[in-house]
Give the backbone structure.
Amino acid sequence: MSKDFQNFIDGQWCDSASGERFDNINPADSDDKVGTFPVSDPTDVSRAVASAASAFDHWRKVPPPERGDIMKRAGDIMTARKEELSILETREMGKVLDETRGDVQEGIDTAYFAFGQSSRLSGKTIPSEMPNKFNMTTHMPIGVVGVITPWNFPLAIPTWKIFPALTSGNTVVFKPASDTPATATLFVEILLEAGVPETAINLVHGPGSSVGRAIVEHPDIRAISFTGSSAVGKNINSTAGAQLKRVSLELGGKNAQIVMDDADLELALEGVLWGAFGTTGQRCTATSRLILHENIHDEFLAELKIQAQALRLGNGLDPDSQVGPVINATARDTIHGYVEVGIGEGALLETGGEAASGGALDKGFFYKPTLFSGVTPGMRIHDEEIFGPVLSVIKSTSLGESIDILNATEYGLSSAIYTRDINAAFTAMRDIQAGITYINGPTIGAECHMPFGGVKNTGNGHREGGDGAYEFFTETKTIYVDFSGTLQRAQIDNR
Ligand code: UN1
């Protein structure tokens, strides 16, 4: 059933200034329209920023544990509405229900982590070099923060940003991806029901080119948290950098799984199937390269091909489906374009390489799980993020060569190695250039209380998850209390 959704600005559900609307259609079923959404512009963003700015002085003074209670209530409501949220997410984004349930659970876990963290927003006490003087630090909220999120984790990623932002005392202007605005709207409804002050959270739907840009350019927004492509991230960083805004960027990946010849091969096979084709390969942590030791290469590849072909594609609401559609027609064309590039570069197309069709699949944007062998660094399908169900297999002769290949990309988000050799595992942990390394597990599946983020062109050094997000969303205040009753000149009177 289709519904007309709205923005939430200045405590009101409202249409955009332009009055225009865009459609949100299920990528698995063109007959299923989730709803229409307002096309907003910089006018709407300005109102949202003014609202968030007006809420800040009250919200920053609410005791953090009281703010945490609200996040806990949001977690409780999300738990009670988990199935509803999961079904809505699958309808607008496509991934199978088991996965959207995981996405919602990641949001719930993040809410409860925020609740715990709210009573631990601690600073430090540090000895003074002077007598009768007390030194300490506290964390202050930054002010109005802009949150711009992608469609592949429609609930989890907004929660990674918004729970820490609010718990730390900031107020928020939130622009979700235009492919998944309904889940974002439900999330804002839940935050309001839980007790977030009405003007402290503002939701503005619309394109990145106008709404996203206006958020990044607005002088009263003091921090931006963005997840998306490296190209957009670089633009955001330079625009926001000119205003000395704090920016957290979580960008692309070209993640690899190494399989050594001593590995548990069944486990490694299960891992790569999940890492490469889970979420139809549309995760920044997805496994898009598989580096196989030459001693097991042929045998492993043959079995992987059989299992990739056996994956059942279909509507994510159908419990028999294992792989859902890709997000939209543009994504399907981009993915297919890369397949043509790979063939042109001389890689061997083992399976897939075309849209999946027939029956109900004709109503959606389905693409067959695709496997290339004979890939080498320097090929575009090896180097560039495809964000779809395309896995490139590279042959290697040793641990050192495997790690060199793994590192031969501009990205550095997630990585994995399957081996039973503890020396190899520790060497990989030390030498792999990535923010996340899994030993005997696939490249996907980060836990929300652990630091999440990458090196090189994957980001700009910040971490989401765990404590990291709380560092990002606060400023450190350094406080000196001199109780000597005299002027004490540091570095002069005491040395
Ligand atoms: C992403 O793809 O942007 O580790 C996030 C994982 C998930 C999060 C992925 N927990 O794959």
User: Anything to note?
Assistant: The radius of gyration is 24 Å. The longest helix spans residues 97-118.
